[in-house]
Amino acid sequence: MFVLIIVVIAVLGTAFFLVSRSKKENYMNWLQFFARGKDAGFSFREIELLRRLAIVCDIEEPTSLFYSQLQLDVCIRSMVRTIRMSGENEDEGTQDFLSKLYDYRKKIEMDKPRIKNGISNSRQITEGQHFRILVAGTGVYRSHLVKNDSQYLTIARPVNTKITSALSWTDTKISVYFWREDDAGYVFDSEVLDEVFSKGVSSLKISHSESLFRTQKRKSVRIRLHRAAFLYLAKADDVQGKIEIEPGLKCFLEDLSDTGCAVTVGGKAESEMRVKIQFAMDNSAISMLGTVRSIDFKEEVNRSILHIEADPLSIEVRNQILSEVFGMLPEEDEEALPFRVLDDEAAGISKQIAPAAETPQESTDG
Question: Could you tell me how far CA 317 lies from the centroid of its own chain?
């Protein structure tokens, strides 16, 4: 009997020790969770909401929300689903908290090595890269990289349809502007060494640069798509978010972020135009008012890509766009999109868009 009592006491003691240890570890884990959340810029109220989200989503290591894109996505997706089911889309506090989560999600995305790793010299530029070539006192030309080797760069002979006079390129000093995908804008000075043919293309050999000047870093995460949309020339009294009832000029939305977009239109266009883009998302109409910051004109197909910087969006529209950018919305039924049009219909826009103005400026979006 005495031995049995000893065994029972030992078992109860072990159980008590394990429970106490578990509670202590659990307490320390949540303490660490709140500390990490505070370091990440969240308020105590927001951290508590995050804690509840982590429990609901059964996140094994809740602290991972502050460094794991995958785990944070699980929680945001759960919250978006709950908002949709409960009809709390218009609740200001809910939208503010969701916006804060998206800002942090964007930070994690932007801190990825593939975005942070820039380039330091022209030998690292990849073939096919598009350039804008500035010749002081003459103008801005379009070109692209044909070949890159250790001694020089070979670029397609620069063109500008507005400049009709022939230019002797050899020994010409040039400035080369380009936007590197998912990275930043760059510029470097160079000199034309020779005029040649390379890969069947009339080209120039230009000198390398050992130092590139990084002009502008991407500020937003974007999503690539090809979605029918309408383009409108903005009126003086237009405000962000106002939905147009009448259809506008048909175009295609090529990429989208919370700070702007890129659209394809037929013909040429003019930079610095004030425009509005309207498109369907998640069974509702989205209107984005902004300014055309740069243009890529593709002469062979007579089309332009307009890179548009958006005016500040309402928090609800911004959250809706970021929900799509980060893949938090259910897939849309493409056949139900009210703005779906055939690809060649966009060419009809050319007659209603003004001639293009060339500029070396690049947008942070598109």
Answer: 16
At 162, is the secondary structure helix, strand, or coil?
coil
- In this predicted structure, the answer to whether residue 155 has a pLDDT above a threshold of 90 is yes
Rounded Cα–Cα distance for residues 110 and 326 (Å) = 12
Q: Tell me the sheet residues that pair with 285.
A: 280
- Under a CB-based contact definition with an 8 Å cutoff, are residues 310 and 277 in contact? no
**How many CB atoms neighbour CB 303 within 10 A?**
21
The answer to whether the beta carbons of residues 230 and 339 sit under 8 Å apart is yes
Among residues 358, 234, 214, the alpha carbon closest in space to that of 296 is found at 358
The residues pairing with 186 across neighbouring beta strands, listed in sequence order, are 178, 214
Encode pLDDT of 343-355 as tens digits. Answer: 333 333 333 333 3
Question: Rounded CA gap, 149 and 211, in Å?
Answer: 16
Q: Give strand ranges (E) for 48-200.
A: 130-135, 139-148, 153-156, 173-179, 184-198
Q: Which three-class secondary structure state does DSSP give residue 282?
A: coil
pLDDT at 25 over 70: no
Cα angle, residue 43 at apex, residues 40 and 46 outer, rounded to 5° = 95
**Integer angstrom CA distances of residue 79 from 46, 141, 176:** 13, 48, 46
Structural domains of the chain in order of their starting residue, each with its CATH number: 2-111 (no CATH), 122-217 (2.30.110.10), 223-352 (2.40.10.220)
163 vs 358: CA distance, rounded Å: 11
Reading phi first (left if > 0) and then psi (alpha if -120 to 50, else beta), residue 272 is in left
